[in-house]
Every structure is written in structure tokens, then in C-alpha cells.
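[Solved] Which block belongs to which protein?

Original post:
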Amino acid sequence: MAPFCAGKVCILPNLTAWRRQVERGTLDALSSKKRGPKARKPDPSVRRIKEQEKENQKLRARLRKAELIIDAQKKIAEIFQFTRDQKDGEDL
């Protein structure tokens, strides 16, 4: 292809450069652009707070279960103590 010169401007080098840009994908004019406002990056402290709140809920649930177990153990210990006291009273 012979260079086509319109006035003082040669078109062939421009076409060659344009083709190379298209092949490399560096030509921004042909790429699709997202419209609308730019998406904001989420604040890392918000994510950290959510993770800590989730962990807090898990720990509260574990605490409730532990308290129930402790209460049950206390009641069982009282029952055994009561029966032991009764046996000690009968032996005398």
C-alpha cells in the first residue's frame, strides 16, 4: 500500500500506528466506557466492623450455651449434694 499524502500529512504511518494500537488493545477510543458515577471503594473499617459484629454475635451465642451448661451443672451438683446429705443422715 503506497502512502497516501493529502497535502503535507501522510496517512499510512497513522494507519499503521492505529492498527498496532488496536492489536495491542491500547486504543482507548474504541474501548467501551462505563457510564455513570464511579464506584467507590468500600471503606475497610466498615468491613472490619461487620466482621467484628459477626464474631461478637458468635461469642454471645457461645456464652449463652456455656451459661446454660454451667447452670445445669450447678443443679446437678445440688441434686447430688442433696442425695449425699440424705444418705449421710440415714447412716447416722
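(Second protein starts here: sequence line, then its C-alpha cells.)
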Amino acid sequence: MVGQDTVVILDGARRTPRPDILITNQEPGLFSRFSTTQLGGLAIAATLEHTPMDRSLIGHVVMGMAAHSHRDSIYGAQGMAWRGGLGQDVPALTVARICGSGAEALCVGADLLLSGLRHDAARPFLVVGGAESMQYPFCLYNYRGRKVGTAVQKYGPCDVQGLPPGTQLQDMLLMSLYDPSAKMSMANTAEELGRRYGITREQADAFGFRSHRRAKAARDAGHFEEEIEPVRVQTDGAAEPIEVRHDTHIMDDISLAKMSRLPAAFEAGGIITAGNASAVVDGGAAMVIGKESDAQKHDVRPLARVIGMGVAACDSAIMGWGPVPATRQALERAGIQGDAIDHVELNEAFAPQALACVRDFEELGIDPEKVNPYGSAIALGHPLGATGAILTLTCAYALRRHQQRYGLVTMCIGGGQGVALVLESI
């Protein structure tokens, strides 16, 4: 797939920090005021600022978003584009492949570039990425057309004082994590993988501990600074805005002893806890992509080539296994073997899910020690629509930093899918 028509990621890609949705599980998170389109706009603006090129060469925007969490979410990528500083003449497409949406945005962007059917030769570059505010709302269903108080609810705000006593609002965050096809939540599918692979609580905790320790080491070494654009926020009661510079979930004082005392979170006798599951955070990421020939023509610096892509489906009851068949596809299309991979970014939805994938990756020739050298979602968080884009730019910068050649980016997807990308550093 390497050649003049290879898709490249340009140098300058940026992401926001990933703060927890709650501070100490008691107060609104640092990004609680931002909608998904605002987070995407922040990422696009930062990327355009750090990518030295004429913005008039941007012909399309493709951004991932998993859920409609805010009142402006219906505008999706278009809202992110104008918030990011792009003109009204730049069209935008929102893509949704749940947890893989940010990676899917890159795949769709590559399709637009290479198919030629809608490629704008005068504006040959695209902005791709993803964003997600995990500040999902509490919702009231099936009240339109019903009497609330003294009037029938047709449009507009609902007066909760007029609702019958005992009426409950549904938590869209928890509801979204239940898969009706599998008849279980995402966490329970990971517990099922743990049973099938014989993964113990001790192994799951050790993997979570590894994620935090590696993420802390990477943060302290400054490895994330190249990709993170700090964000200034005004918090409740604060006189001055504060600057958010880092992902906030990394635990500096974590220990296996502390992790072992955490209760099972989803099943009696289960192995998944708050310490070995992905953190719930907000975030966004963006990058500019184009054909390698156009990068040369316009004298812009590429960061990495995208040489292989894969998307696959699997049994929804073990949805977390999806990265394995997707990785097989991506490696085959890239024309390389697993032992050629230098750096893997595997989203850690849950420790047993990630461990199951790592075991099968080893059969593909991928060294387990090369998986998540900077930690991943257990320590850093998983903002659904953004994660694929975040992992892609983390991998691309890491390859260049360590003078390595090939990287793999992959993640599982709720409902039973997986997506994978193979990058080649330039």
C-alpha cells in the first residue's frame, strides 16, 4: 500500500487532555461544561495551529462521535469544524462506530481521498479525528403527548414538578453500556472473555497496575506533551481559570495491595473492578491527512503513513475480542507480519478483555511487551468517539520519538466489532 497515493498523517496532530467526568467522584469534572462538539472544536483548532499549512487546502472534515450527549450533538462534525476555525464552505461528516469512531473517521477520510469520487483536488487535505463528552444526560422517556401537570407535553422543557411521584430519569451513560444483542453490559462481556481465557483477578489487577505505572512513567518523561494541547477552564467558585495539561486519572500512589481490596463492580465473584476497567473521561483529538503525493506537492511534513486497515465483527457476547480479527486484516493488508510491529496501542476497555487480545496477538507474532508501553485506557481513560484518534496520534508520535518503524492501533467496539490501523513512521 506504500506509494504516491498512500494516505499520510501530517505532523501537528493534537488532542485535549482527558479529565475524569467527576472529580473524586463527587464534583463535576474539569470538562463538564464542554459538549462533544466543543471538545472536537478544541482539538481541530489546536491541530490547525500546529500544522503549518494553508487552511484553504482543507476540503473536508470527518469526525467520530459515539452518542448524542448534548443538545448540539446532532450537528456533530459540522459543529466541531466551525468551532475549530474552518470556514462555512468546508463540509463535514460525523461517523459513529461506537468505541472505534475516531479510528473509523480516519478510515472514511482515507476512502474519500483514495476513491476519487468526491476528492477535491483543489483542497486535497482532510481533518479527521473524534470527540466525546461522557457527560451523558439523564433522560425521561415516553412523555411526549402525555399530560404533565395541567397540560399535555408537546415540545419544550418538561416541568418535573408536574411528574407523578416516583418518576425516574434514566442514566444514558449506563443505558448506553448495555447491549441488547448480547443481553448484557459491556463489562459483563469482558467477564465472559475472562472466563473463556482463564484470566484471574490477580492477573487483571496486575494488568491495571501495569497501565498506571507505564502511564505515569510516560507522563513524567514528557512523552504526552507533544500531543496534548492544554485547555483553560473556569471551574465553579474559582476566581481565575485553571489550565488542564495532563490526563487526570493516572494514579501516582497505586499499589497491587490497594487494587486487591476493591470489590467486583459488575458480577458477584467477578474480576473487573474500578481499578482494572477503563476510566470514564472526556476528550477530543484531530489530525490532518492527505495523499503522500499532495504532501510533497504542498511541502507539508508527514508524520506517518497509514498502510493497513481492518474492521471485523465477532460474537457480541465477547465483543472485546474484536481487535484480534481486525488486526489480522490490517497486518495482511499492510503486507507485514506481527513480529514487525514495534509499538501497539490497544484500547484497554477492561483488563480481561485486553489480556485476551494480548494472548492472541502473541500467536500473531506481536511481542506482549510492546503493547501499551505508555499505558492505556485503564490509566488514561476512554472517551468513546475520541479514543481511536487519540491512540493513532499517540502511536505515530511514539514511533518517531523512539525511531521505530511500524505501529498498530486497535480497539474493541460494543456490539461485537474491532477496528485496527497499521502505521509506518516517516
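Accepted answer:
You had them paired correctly. Confirming on the second one: The chain has a mean pLDDT of 95.
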